[in-house]
Amino acid sequence: MQMTVKDAAKAMNVAEKTVYRWIQSGGLPAYRVAGSYRINRAMLFEWATAKRVNFREDLSAESEDLRPLPSLADALQNGGIHYRVGGADKNAVLSAMVDLLKLPDAVDRAVVRQALLTREQLQSTGVGDGIALPHVRNPGHFGFGAPAVCLGFLETPIEFGALDGNPVKVLFLPLAPDTRTHLHLLSRIAFALRHPRFKRLLEREARREDLLKAARELEPPSS
Question: Is the per-residue pLDDT at 62 higher than 60?
């Protein structure tokens, strides 16, 4: 979904002039169409998450399947939590993560691997504090099936080009059938990373059961 500067300003609750300033000097990804800026919603969300800028998760305008959105705990259950993931550099680590993914038979792992690397070439998904959120740009094109988040703890921290310059030790890799679900998963991960207890569990590479329990406790109560 493409957004105008006005849409982006509303989504981040800032003035339009602030968005223009971020485009011109802050690295906010945008391109010109007939003299006006257009911004890809998924890329804006990624940029906002990396910059610690709040982003409204109001996706009602998207003309996609309005199926129920998963909780982070359910997505982690589907994607799996893995320890001592090997790899001496970013490419090797991402390759190892792709090998761990639970993918439908029709999905080509080599294509997913290349899509992740291509996304990293645009801008690092390292969000700071030793954490990265590698993902593909257009999830609806891959046929991923059920929403999932694969969480990997690296055997050795690696240079990832993160904003804070710190090496990365923890990877969250979301898989979604469409952009709406993709943004939702990124939003739930970003929300969890703002909670000190969940962050502490990540830092000490807690047990799967403890991480899933903590993720469930962050979800709003059912109405």
Answer: no
Q: Which of the residues 135, 182, 184, 195 is marked catalytic?
A: 135
Residues in contact with 91: Cβ distance below 8 Å, sequence separation at least 6, in sequence order: 117
φ, ψ at 128 (rounded to 5°): 105, 165
Q: Order across the sheet with 36-40: list the strands.
A: 2-3, 36-40, 31-33
Per-residue pLDDT at 47: 76
* 8 A C-beta contact, residue 208 and residue 194: no
94 with 192, same domain? Answer: yes
3 state SS of 21: helix
Alpha helices per DSSP H over 26-175: 41-50, 72-79, 90-100, 109-122
Domain count, the chain: 2
Query: Which of the four pLDDT bands, split at 50, 70 and 90, describes residue 34?
Result: confident
pTM listed for this prediction: 0.74
Residue indicated by tokens 């906010």 = 28
**pLDDT score recorded for residue 57:** 55
Residue 82 known to be catalytic: no
Q: Both 185 and 88 in a single domain?
A: yes
